[in-house]
Design brief:
Length: 360
Amino acid sequence: MQKKFLLEKFAGFCGSLSQCDNVAIVHHNDADGISSAAITAKAVFKITGKKPVLVYGFNYRNKATEKKILEELPKKANKLIIVDLATDYYGRKLGKVDFMDAILIIDHHEFNLDLNSEKIVFIHPKFLSKKNSSAYPASKLCFDLFNRILDLQAADWIACIGIIGDNAKKHWLGFLKKTAQRNKTTIKEIEGLERMVSAVGVMQKEKFGEIFWVLFKAEKIRDCMEKKFLEIKTEFEKEEKRLEKEAKNGVEDFPRLELEIYNIKTNFPTIKSQIVNAISNKKPKKTIIIWEASGNNIRFSARRQDGKVHVNRLLEKAIEGIPNSNAGGHIPAAAGGIPKEYFKTFRKQLFEELEKIYGG
Ligand SMILES: [Mn+2]
């Protein structure tokens, strides 16, 4: 897909938006996803004078939300914007939403299928930038795209929440610094805000929707700092500390394969991302895997920051042939799940794949 043509297609989508449209936004339920949605909603509001009629946070494999989305969409909205959701998974569902007038997808996960068509505008960093896609969070991409069409400068700090949440800070230090200056604050304060947003997403998912509206309405960082959210952040940081310790105590270390496997037990399964990021940021030359049992399933996250192992491929290989399994994401960061009775198979295939790389 040609860059110029794609940007024209994007401008065409924005140009076609009017007061008569009812826009729905579906976003990944994490810091990058919700920031992408807030930036997008601000842009839609500037263009149409209307708030989005529907906003859904969505996690992969959440069948209940998926069903609700597909039921409500045709009743309430005629245009759909999907942000920060892997299209290889979500793309298959898009067949079911061809009743929409137009669809805009902005995402940065690895993909196989280019969804661009007459009705669908699909924008991915691969089409626009030489940057590695995982280093170009969806929130920054949304910010850059809409900022071409209208002045969104005032929402620069929201893009930073997504950048920090997706562990891409080191790729955007200049932008973070500039944003902190323009907002008369520090990078540290913006990091605190990201922690607060992630804390609500992890600890009290039911309140995460509120965060979207807080970000959407906020004009500046301090408009978001509500006491009830800051209390959740304190709880979150306590749980994080506890789990980091627990993980370290039970680590399985495989030095020859530069592999460390961690296990945690928690009531807040999505906290895995934060724990594995914290470990991996200290050990960029190790493949780090963290897993936890939830019901009949094992869920896992993997990280590798020097690029020697592509953890999205690694996990995809490790789940091969396992029914009801899934895995995917980015080269340095990926996640997935399997039914727990296949944990041995998963481990066996994981080691086999690593042996191929390390020549065992
Ligand atoms: Mn993302």
